[in-house]
Design goal:
By secondary structure, this protein is of the alpha/beta class. The protein is built from 14 helices and 20 strands. A hairpin with a 5-residue loop joins strand 7 and strand 8. The structure holds adenosine-5'-diphosphate, aspartic acid and magnesium ion (MG).
Length: 420
């Protein structure tokens, strides 16, 4: 007998027919003798719809009430799955975030899980019941409903797996694993049997939305065995314990044989570029730009400072999340005198393309291949940033798909047997 968490994403829960097929899949795992907790997302598109209502109601909505509204999508699917399981003869009940409880911080709309009480959950599983838990939601110290940030059901699933000491956390989605890049953009993308936690963390943080970044960080910290696999397979599909999907593993488990120079490529269209023109070229000038942004909780990603103009001033370019652009402009306009820049220009039609791989640590030339490949296609690089296992460039948004495709080929990642 194993203890497993099965998490189903929005596309897998979109409509009663799909919920029934999720119930059938859960039933197979129960029949195999496993104790099962299921974490569910809202139906595809539902959270966007609920977010839209909040924005329509007021542009300055209270985040606590926003969480009450947007957490509702998962409440519906958890109840529906419990009903479908019962109808299939599987004892089941739903456990809302406040009922377990899943305790979080009070950072509404992007709360962090602090503690999960598993007493009731353990008793329910021991009694042979399937526990159906809505993802994305929890409860803060004041008993207010909270949510974990978009895509947060992955994090709920990993946190529950860690708390109940599950043998595995299976993330069922609309693709059958983690690919070398988004298979919807590059049909020649290859499925990976294994990816290291570290690489998955980088890939997720630079835009590979197949797993929420926080869920990967948590799995790495807690040593949770995470598998990404498809929920769109028939009844004769191999059981999850034969590991048909992609396993997220430690570097030791990956082994040298399977190590690639580049593991994957990701893109992110949700950044915006800001350039401050003619900033005084003197000590403290850069601090004067980034300190007020940090105070406003705005995450700056890529930064470039040009060489000084003859007049002792310089231009500084950086990126922020597109959703924070308006606030960033406001903060920088307020600090204009203190910073001393002349003009501010901004651009949302940019995309960040990143190549990730632990092999980069021991091989030179990864960045130069990237720059040459993009240069040959006439794609201009507007900013660059690197980490030990990642190189990112900022380019014009219209070239996103082309850039991902040519880089995928340049690093030898194309699958040979797939037409594209
Ligand atoms: P869910 O609703 O199940 O949480 P998501 O839409 O959040 O699903 O994530 C799955 C999607 O992630 C896929 O449909 C795919 O388009 C996208 N994706 C992006 N990068 C990758 C990648 N490297 N491998 C697999 N899927 C990826
Ligand atoms: N329903 C939430 C969202 O769309 C959480 C999730 O699906 O992971 O962001
Ligand atoms: Mg998701």
């Amino acid at each position: 007998m194993a203890r497993i968490v099965m998490k189903f994403g929005g596309t897998s829960m979109a409509g009663i027919e799909r919920i029934r097929s999720v119930a059938a899949r859960v039933k197979r795992e129960v029949a195999a003798g496993n104790q099962v907790a299921v974490v569910v997302s809202a139906m595809a598109g539902e959270t966007d719809r609920l977010v839209g209502f909040c924005r329509e109601a007021s542009s300055l909505y209270d985040p606590k009430e926003y969480d009450v509204v947007v957490s509702a999508g998962e409440q519906i699917t958890s109840g529906l799955l419990a009903i479908a399981l019962q109808a299939a003869g599987v004892p089941a009940r739903s456990w809302l975030g406040w009922q377990l409880p899943i305790e979080t911080t009070d950072a509404h709309a992007s709360a962090r899980i602090e503690h999960i009480d598993t007493t009731a959950l353990d008793a329910s599983l021991a009694a042979g019941e399937v526990a159906v838990i809505p993802g994305f939601q929890g409860v803060d110290g004041d008993d207010r409903v909270s949510t974990l940030g978009r895509g947060g059901s992955d994090t709920s699933a990993v946190a529950i797996a860690a708390a109940m000491k599950a043998d595995r956390c299976d993330i069922y989605t609309d693709v059958d694993g983690v690919y070398t890049t988004d298979p919807r953009i590059v049909p020649r993308a290859r499925k990976l049997k294994k990816v290291t936690y570290e690489e998955m963390l980088e890939l997720a943080s630079v835009g590979a939305k197949v797993l929420q970044t926080r869920s990967v960080g948590l799995a790495m910290k807690e040593g949770v065995r995470v598998q990404v696999l498809s929920s769109f397979t028939g009844e004769d599909a191999p059981m999850a314990d034969t590991l048909p999907g992609t396993m997220i593993v430690s570097e030791e488990e990956l082994g040298d044989m399977e190590r690639q120079l580049i593991t994957g490529i990701a893109h992110d269209k949700n950044e915006a570029k800001i350039t401050l023109i003619a900033v005084p070229d003197k000590p403290g000038a850069v601090a004067a730009i980034f300190a007020p942004l940090a105070t406003a909780n705005i995450n700056v990603d890529m930064i470039i400072q040009n060489i000084a103009h003859a007049a002792g001033s310089t231009d500084v370019t950086f990126t922020v999340p597109a959703a924070d652009l308006a606030r960033s402009i406001e903060v920088l306009t307020q600090s204009r005198e203190k910073i001393g820049y002349e003009t501010l220009v901004h651009d949302t039609r940019v995309a960040k393309i990143s190549v990730v791989g632990v092999g980069m640590r021991s091989h030179a030339g990864v960045a130069s291949t990237m720059f040459t490949t993009l240069g040959e296609r006439g794609i201009n690089i507007q900013a660059i940033s690197t980490s030990e296992i990642k190189v990112s460039v900022l380019i014009e948004e219209d070239y996103t798909e082309l850039a991902v495709r040519v880089l995928h080929t340049a690093y030898g990642l194309d699958a040979e047997d797939v037409a594209g």
